[in-house]
């Protein structure tokens, strides 16, 4: 096989990119991180298209040499890409409050058309007839269907919460959508995110596929080449247990759910961890071209799993038909046991560690008999020969990032499960996506046992001490230093904590999908007046730019697990449009509930005198922050 050449940035590349990159062999000029996060391969496997998540570009790479031959500048960084079957056109999603899809002619590298879609677009997918493009509009809870003839959104399909990945069945009848987060209250017995199945003739929902209790943080969903199965990877949170033990997945496990596309039912959910080694943060998924293997990256442990699919199906069917478990270590006696069985994949899966130079595998494509993996934090591609997966993994540097600012290091640590005992989870396993939330309740030990709390977004945490719902940590630095032993179960050098501090300080709010052209709507304006009026008294506690007095209060929200004397720290209200459910115990599904059913005695501001329209207006204001 051709040895891979180190990548040299050519003059043409430099001209195209408005950035300064490395010139010549290894000499550096300051260059920002690329963060390769989406991949697509030309039908002849000679070119790879690499979407960068932190520079506005798509790179064209020659697979034989590893050379970057071209780069196309985009309006903003890329979150996903897909190619027409004949390889002529590439569609790239550029996320923003109003996202853009760029259509790129692959023969010239030019953007020939741009199309507008919803908030934070990702994972574009073509319909089988290639007349439509479906794009997840994550924060609008929607899939936008673009008619490629006109370039306009022809239909908006609804998904419950944060759709991040979608696939169309080969017959064009159904669209399957992976919802990143659960959409219910967090204090229920069953809390899980779903896969939404939509009927593409009517646009209506066929069903919500219920994954096992605790399923969350869904990522890639992909359909097998024969169209008979779909696979989606996710986390399986053991949220009903106190977070006292991490081994054997007692806090978080990593999973893969298989969907039978003939019946549109969940076949089963298989754990991706081993008994003594977590495989945290499963992310990208690909099928081998003949459907014989499923591959998934583990972004937290920097690995690739290669799973023998026919053998897995056989093991599932044998169990389902009452057959005795085979000679493996599997503990399953019935199909219902599989989602708790850390040994079900023994003998069916190869776990491949990427090289030490490869950090954060978040994208994956199979081309030319190889698995190509884009590593977010190291700006490298990993290459694995699928004919000989045991041969050494190769790593290709895409550019040399000369700066390594503390916030970027901190972000890498935040997402790195190798800092955790046995690789079970990372900070991002609960504070998903730029250190926000997972929508779950967790019984952390910072305030005693038996009183689960809804996870908190870490946006603005450094500016709003004290920390935690009960204010039990003095500030975010203290919370970070307590989080390492309690969430990762290890001791780390101070450098890890200071980089995490820098990362948290670097977070900035994202504009709300409830704004209109970046502005408060009329309803939002009316709500703003109510919020600041003396009749509601909201601003007495939700004060200043960050909407918090940083003090603890009793506001009539004590739940069945709380101590009667508990006082809760006034939360900031910035970005609450993306942190449902609400209150310390996740007992309010909507902001409106916070203002109504959760405030029956006017102990939490004064709301009982407000008309339904005024409640609506106030909620619109809050959701616009
Ligand atoms: C098992 C899930 C889980 C993991 C893993 C986790 N956290 Fe948290 N985190 C939570 C929950 C739940 C809360 C809210 C708890 C409370 O208020 O009592 C929280 C709160 C915080 C807060 C306080 C935020 C605020 O505004 O009050 C910080 C800071 C924090 N976590 C940092 C981290 C860091 C750093 C890591 C990794 C070392 C981490 N967390 C890992 C669940 C988790
Ligand atoms: C006495 C101080 C105080 C007043 C007045 C007050 N709040 Fe709060 N607010 C809090 C506290 C404390 C919490 C957390 C309560 C809990 O988690 O149980 C909270 C929580 C919230 C939340 C949920 C945030 C989240 O992330 O879960 C919203 C929304 C909210 N308040 C809006 C309002 C509005 C609107 C008003 C006016 C009608 C108001 N608050 C008046 C102190 C106050």
Shape: globular
Number of strands: 33
CATH top level class name of the domain at 39-154: Mainly Beta
- Small molecules bound in the structure, each named once: heme C
Structural class designation: alpha+beta
* Low-confidence blocks of residues: 1-30
Share in helix: 10-25%
CATH architecture identity of the domain at 39-154: 7 Propeller
- How many helices does DSSP assign? 10
- CATH homologous superfamily heading of the domain at 39-154: YVTN repeat-like/Quinoprotein amine dehydrogenase
CATH third-level topology of the domain at 39-154: Methylamine Dehydrogenase, Chain H
End-to-end Cα distance? 55 Å
Give the percentage of residues in beta strands: 25-35%
Cα Rg: 24 Å
- Sheet of most strands: 5 strands, antiparallel
Q: Look at the structure and give the mean pLDDT.
A: 92
Describe this structure in words.
The protein has 625 residues and is an alpha+beta fold. Among the domains are: 39-154, Methylamine Dehydrogenase, Chain H, CATH 2.130.10; 411-506, Cytochrome Bc1 Complex, Chain D, domain 2 (Orthogonal Bundle), CATH 1.10.760.10; 522-624, Cytochrome c-like domain (Cytochrome Bc1 Complex, Chain D, domain 2, Orthogonal Bundle), CATH 1.10.760.10. The chain contains 10 helices and 33 strands. The strands form 9 sheets. Strands 17, 18, 19, 20 and 21 form a 5-stranded antiparallel beta sheet that branches. The protein has a 4-stranded antiparallel beta sheet with strand order 1-2-3-4. A hairpin with a 4-residue loop joins strand 11 and strand 12. The longest helix is centred in the last third of the chain and has 13 residues, at 476-488. The radius of gyration is 24 Å and the shape is globular. Residues 1-30 have low confidence and may be disordered. One heme C is lined by residues 469, 531, 536-538, 540-542, 553, 555, 557, 568, 570-571, 573, 576, 579, 582-584, 591, 594-595, 604-605, 607, 618, 622.
